[in-house]
Specification:
It is a single chain. By secondary structure, the protein is of the alpha/beta class. It contains eight helices and seven strands.
């Protein structure tokens, strides 16, 4: 997994509460077992018209959201099923950071396990970011080491909380397998001592 220390990027605003994992990645696209290839189907029912053309009224299709890598979302983002495909689709589309007032717990954990930083900020701060991102191309810097968010003009600055365990995993680019592999020599030594 790619380490995340400081991330700078353009924002996309999704001003909708209770966005569930079936809206993030519809069920008909869950036939793959690889983690890649889901970005093209992200928010499929909202991003595209029935004729396959992009819907210009959908927030991610706004010109200001071009090449966005930071998603600003509303309450209870990622609710619904526990499908890990939702963070896979967000990451494959290009998002590394999501900022929202609240998340589904399972979705939040799935994001961190897959290298996406989900930031919780108070509602008034999220709405201030949405207001800025809705009127122009809006860039943010997210500093995980110092747990700070700021915009290019220093008009917005905020700090955020994150569990130290998840922070260390993201800073080092670790997943649960790579954590286990750190103890590979100890595991091999144990297996030599104890016949299983």
């Amino acid at each position: 997994m790619e380490a995340l220390t400081v991330h700078e990027g353009n924002t996309a605003v999704l001003e909708r509460a209770n966005v569930d994992t079936d809206q993030i990645i519809p069920k008909q696209f869950l036939k793959r077992v690889e983690r890649t290839g889901f970005g093209q189907f992200l928010f499929f029912d909202w991003r595209f018209k029935s004729n396959g053309e992009e819907d210009p009224s959908f927030e991610l299709n706004y010109p200001s959201a071009a090449n966005a890598s930071i998603l600003i979302a509303d309450h209870n983002f990622g609710s619904g099923s526990s499908r890990e495909h939702a963070p896979w689709a967000l990451q494959d589309y290009g998002f590394r950071v999501i900022i929202a007032p609240s998340y589904s717990d399972i979705f939040y954990n799935n994001c961190v396990k897959n290298g996406i930083l989900p930031v919780r900020l108070p509602e008034d701060q999220v709405y201030e970011l949405m207001k800025n991102g809705n009127v122009k191309e809006y860039h943010l810097t997210v500093d995980l080491q110092n747990q700070q968010i700021s915009d290019k003009d220093a008009d917005f600055e905020a700090t955020f909380e994150i569990d130290p365990y998840w922070k260390e995993m993201l800073l080092n680019g670790w997943d649960e397998i790579s954590i286990t592999l750190q103890y590979e020599k100890d595991i091999e030594a144990y297996e030599k001592r104890v016949k299983v």
